[in-house]
Amino acid sequence: DADVTQTPRNRITKTGKRIMLECSQTKGHDRMYWYRQDPGLGLRLIYYSFDVKDINKGEISDGYSVSRQAQAKFSLSLESAIPNQTALYFCATSDRRADTGELFFGEGSRLTVL
Amino acid sequence: GQQVMQIPQYQHVQEGEDFTTYCNSSTTLSNIQWYKQRPGGHPVFLIQLVKSGEVKKQKRLTFQFGEAKKNSSLHITATQTTDVGTYFCAGPNSWGKLQFGAGTQVVVTP
User: Fold this and answer.
1) Cα–Cα dist B27/A9, whole Å
2) pLDDT tens digits along A77-93
3) B102 partner at 20 to 30 Å CA-CA among B6, B35, B39, B58?
4) Which of residues 42-101 of B touch A (CB under 8 A)?
Protein backbone atom coordinates (compact mmCIF):
# COMPACT_ATOMS: atom_id res chain seq x y z
CA ASP A 1 0.00 0.00 0.00
CA ALA A 2 1.13 3.52 -0.75
CA ASP A 3 2.43 5.56 2.18
CA VAL A 4 0.70 8.68 0.84
CA THR A 5 -2.76 7.99 -0.53
CA GLN A 6 -4.87 10.38 -2.54
CA THR A 7 -8.56 10.09 -3.38
CA PRO A 8 -10.05 10.33 -5.88
CA ARG A 9 -7.39 9.50 -8.45
CA ASN A 10 -9.47 10.93 -11.26
CA ARG A 11 -12.40 13.29 -11.19
CA ILE A 12 -14.40 15.08 -13.85
CA THR A 13 -16.68 17.84 -12.67
CA LYS A 14 -18.52 20.89 -13.92
CA THR A 15 -17.86 24.57 -13.42
CA GLY A 16 -19.22 25.84 -10.13
CA LYS A 17 -19.21 22.50 -8.32
CA ARG A 18 -17.49 22.00 -4.97
CA ILE A 19 -14.72 19.45 -5.04
CA MET A 20 -12.67 17.89 -2.26
CA LEU A 21 -9.44 16.01 -2.79
CA GLU A 22 -8.30 13.94 0.16
CA CYS A 23 -4.86 12.87 1.27
CA SER A 24 -3.88 10.48 4.01
CA GLN A 25 -0.44 9.24 5.03
CA THR A 26 0.97 6.44 7.11
CA LYS A 27 4.52 7.79 7.25
CA GLY A 28 4.02 9.58 10.55
CA HIS A 29 5.25 12.84 9.04
CA ASP A 30 4.15 16.12 10.56
CA ARG A 31 4.39 18.22 7.41
CA MET A 32 1.93 17.96 4.52
CA TYR A 33 1.61 19.86 1.27
CA TRP A 34 -0.65 20.26 -1.74
CA TYR A 35 0.94 20.93 -5.13
CA ARG A 36 -0.53 21.52 -8.52
CA GLN A 37 1.18 20.32 -11.72
CA ASP A 38 0.53 21.84 -15.13
CA PRO A 39 2.47 20.99 -18.31
CA GLY A 40 5.50 23.24 -18.67
CA LEU A 41 5.02 24.84 -15.26
CA GLY A 42 6.41 22.24 -12.91
CA LEU A 43 4.94 21.86 -9.45
CA ARG A 44 3.45 24.85 -7.69
CA LEU A 45 2.66 24.95 -3.99
CA ILE A 46 -0.97 25.60 -3.08
CA TYR A 47 -1.04 25.15 0.72
CA TYR A 48 1.10 23.54 3.36
CA SER A 49 0.71 22.52 6.99
CA PHE A 50 3.41 21.83 9.54
CA ASP A 51 1.07 20.35 12.13
CA VAL A 52 -2.64 19.99 12.83
CA LYS A 53 -3.13 23.60 13.93
CA ASP A 54 -0.89 25.11 11.29
CA ILE A 55 -2.13 26.10 7.81
CA ASN A 56 -0.17 28.27 5.39
CA LYS A 57 -0.80 29.61 1.91
CA GLY A 58 1.55 28.73 -0.87
CA GLU A 59 2.20 30.57 -4.11
CA ILE A 60 -1.19 29.83 -5.75
CA SER A 61 -3.78 29.53 -2.96
CA ASP A 62 -6.55 31.64 -4.53
CA GLY A 63 -9.65 29.54 -5.23
CA TYR A 64 -8.53 26.76 -2.87
CA SER A 65 -8.92 25.95 0.81
CA VAL A 66 -7.53 23.17 2.97
CA SER A 67 -8.28 21.33 6.18
CA ARG A 68 -5.85 19.37 8.36
CA GLN A 69 -8.25 17.01 10.09
CA ALA A 70 -5.52 15.01 11.81
CA GLN A 71 -1.77 14.60 11.55
CA ALA A 72 -2.34 11.98 8.89
CA LYS A 73 -5.03 13.73 6.85
CA PHE A 74 -4.90 16.87 4.72
CA SER A 75 -7.71 17.71 2.31
CA LEU A 76 -7.87 20.27 -0.49
CA SER A 77 -11.16 21.90 -1.48
CA LEU A 78 -12.20 23.85 -4.53
CA GLU A 79 -15.29 25.76 -3.39
CA SER A 80 -16.46 26.59 -6.90
CA ALA A 81 -14.41 24.83 -9.53
CA ILE A 82 -13.44 26.62 -12.74
CA PRO A 83 -11.90 25.21 -15.93
CA ASN A 84 -8.42 26.67 -15.30
CA GLN A 85 -8.23 24.53 -12.16
CA THR A 86 -8.00 21.51 -14.45
CA ALA A 87 -4.66 19.99 -13.44
CA LEU A 88 -2.87 17.14 -11.74
CA TYR A 89 -2.81 17.61 -7.96
CA PHE A 90 -0.24 16.05 -5.68
CA CYS A 91 -0.21 15.70 -1.94
CA ALA A 92 3.21 15.39 -0.33
CA THR A 93 4.68 14.88 3.12
CA SER A 94 8.00 15.54 4.77
CA ASP A 95 9.57 14.88 8.14
CA ARG A 96 10.93 17.88 10.03
CA ARG A 97 13.43 15.58 11.77
CA ALA A 98 14.99 14.40 8.50
CA ASP A 99 18.42 15.55 7.36
CA THR A 100 16.98 16.50 4.01
CA GLY A 101 13.71 18.20 3.22
CA GLU A 102 12.78 15.28 0.97
CA LEU A 103 9.17 15.31 -0.14
CA PHE A 104 7.20 12.08 -0.43
CA PHE A 105 4.45 12.41 -3.02
CA GLY A 106 1.14 10.65 -3.40
CA GLU A 107 0.05 9.10 -6.68
CA GLY A 108 -1.77 12.26 -7.76
CA SER A 109 -5.36 13.28 -8.40
CA ARG A 110 -6.25 14.30 -11.93
CA LEU A 111 -9.05 16.86 -11.93
CA THR A 112 -10.92 17.98 -15.03
CA VAL A 113 -13.31 20.91 -14.77
CA LEU A 114 -15.68 21.25 -17.72
CA GLY B 1 10.81 36.66 -6.34
CA GLN B 2 13.01 33.68 -6.76
CA GLN B 3 12.89 31.82 -10.04
CA VAL B 4 14.19 28.34 -10.74
CA MET B 5 14.72 27.65 -14.41
CA GLN B 6 15.59 24.40 -16.10
CA ILE B 7 17.01 23.83 -19.55
CA PRO B 8 16.34 22.19 -21.83
CA GLN B 9 12.59 21.70 -21.49
CA TYR B 10 12.79 18.60 -23.68
CA GLN B 11 15.69 16.25 -24.30
CA HIS B 12 15.61 13.53 -26.94
CA VAL B 13 18.47 11.09 -26.41
CA GLN B 14 19.63 8.04 -28.29
CA GLU B 15 20.03 5.04 -26.02
CA GLY B 16 23.65 4.81 -24.93
CA GLU B 17 24.38 8.52 -25.28
CA ASP B 18 25.13 10.96 -22.49
CA PHE B 19 23.23 14.15 -21.73
CA THR B 20 23.10 16.95 -19.19
CA THR B 21 20.21 19.00 -17.87
CA TYR B 22 20.73 22.30 -16.10
CA CYS B 23 19.03 24.17 -13.30
CA ASN B 24 19.55 27.87 -12.62
CA SER B 25 18.27 29.98 -9.75
CA SER B 26 17.92 33.74 -9.66
CA THR B 27 19.06 33.68 -6.01
CA THR B 28 21.62 31.77 -3.97
CA LEU B 29 20.24 28.50 -2.66
CA SER B 30 20.93 26.86 0.70
CA ASN B 31 20.43 23.49 -0.98
CA ILE B 32 18.99 21.97 -4.11
CA GLN B 33 16.99 18.81 -4.60
CA TRP B 34 16.40 16.69 -7.69
CA TYR B 35 13.31 14.59 -8.39
CA LYS B 36 12.35 12.18 -11.16
CA GLN B 37 8.81 11.65 -12.39
CA ARG B 38 8.17 8.67 -14.64
CA PRO B 39 5.40 9.04 -17.24
CA GLY B 40 2.07 8.73 -15.45
CA GLY B 41 3.79 8.64 -12.08
CA HIS B 42 4.60 10.92 -9.20
CA PRO B 43 7.83 12.78 -8.42
CA VAL B 44 10.38 10.72 -6.53
CA PHE B 45 13.30 12.24 -4.63
CA LEU B 46 16.72 11.52 -6.10
CA ILE B 47 19.20 13.59 -4.13
CA GLN B 48 19.93 16.75 -2.17
CA LEU B 49 23.07 18.87 -2.59
CA VAL B 50 24.09 21.31 0.10
CA LYS B 51 27.74 22.35 -0.26
CA SER B 52 29.22 24.73 -2.79
CA GLY B 53 30.80 22.75 -5.63
CA GLU B 54 29.41 19.48 -4.32
CA VAL B 55 29.36 16.50 -6.69
CA LYS B 56 27.42 13.33 -5.97
CA LYS B 57 27.04 10.22 -8.07
CA GLN B 58 24.30 7.63 -8.20
CA LYS B 59 25.35 4.92 -10.64
CA ARG B 60 25.11 6.59 -14.06
CA LEU B 61 23.75 9.88 -12.65
CA THR B 62 26.11 12.68 -11.60
CA PHE B 63 24.74 15.70 -9.74
CA GLN B 64 26.66 18.92 -9.27
CA PHE B 65 25.99 22.07 -7.25
CA GLY B 66 27.67 25.21 -8.56
CA GLU B 67 30.34 27.11 -6.66
CA ALA B 68 28.03 30.09 -6.26
CA LYS B 69 25.14 27.81 -5.22
CA LYS B 70 22.93 29.31 -7.90
CA ASN B 71 23.02 26.49 -10.40
CA SER B 72 23.07 22.73 -10.58
CA SER B 73 23.34 20.05 -13.21
CA LEU B 74 22.38 16.43 -13.70
CA HIS B 75 24.49 14.39 -16.10
CA ILE B 76 23.39 10.93 -17.20
CA THR B 77 25.88 8.66 -18.93
CA ALA B 78 24.99 5.78 -21.24
CA THR B 79 21.28 6.62 -21.22
CA GLN B 80 18.90 3.69 -20.88
CA THR B 81 15.17 3.41 -21.55
CA THR B 82 14.65 3.36 -17.79
CA ASP B 83 15.88 6.97 -17.68
CA VAL B 84 12.71 8.16 -19.43
CA GLY B 85 10.78 10.71 -17.42
CA THR B 86 10.81 14.30 -16.27
CA TYR B 87 13.59 15.52 -14.02
CA PHE B 88 12.86 18.42 -11.68
CA CYS B 89 15.19 20.50 -9.61
CA ALA B 90 13.87 22.38 -6.58
CA GLY B 91 15.32 24.91 -4.20
CA PRO B 92 13.99 26.63 -1.09
CA ASN B 93 12.51 30.07 -1.68
CA SER B 94 12.64 33.04 0.67
CA TRP B 95 10.08 31.44 3.02
CA GLY B 96 11.91 28.15 3.02
CA LYS B 97 9.48 26.27 0.82
CA LEU B 98 10.65 24.26 -2.16
CA GLN B 99 10.23 25.97 -5.49
CA PHE B 100 10.34 23.61 -8.46
CA GLY B 101 11.68 24.23 -11.91
CA ALA B 102 9.48 23.38 -14.89
CA GLY B 103 11.40 20.17 -15.47
CA THR B 104 13.30 18.51 -18.30
CA GLN B 105 11.30 15.85 -20.10
CA VAL B 106 13.61 13.10 -21.32
CA VAL B 107 12.68 10.81 -24.19
CA VAL B 108 14.98 7.92 -25.01
CA THR B 109 15.12 6.45 -28.49
CA PRO B 110 16.20 2.80 -28.64
Assistant:
1) 36
2) 999 999 999 999 999 99
3) B58
4) 42-45, 48, 88, 90, 92, 97-101
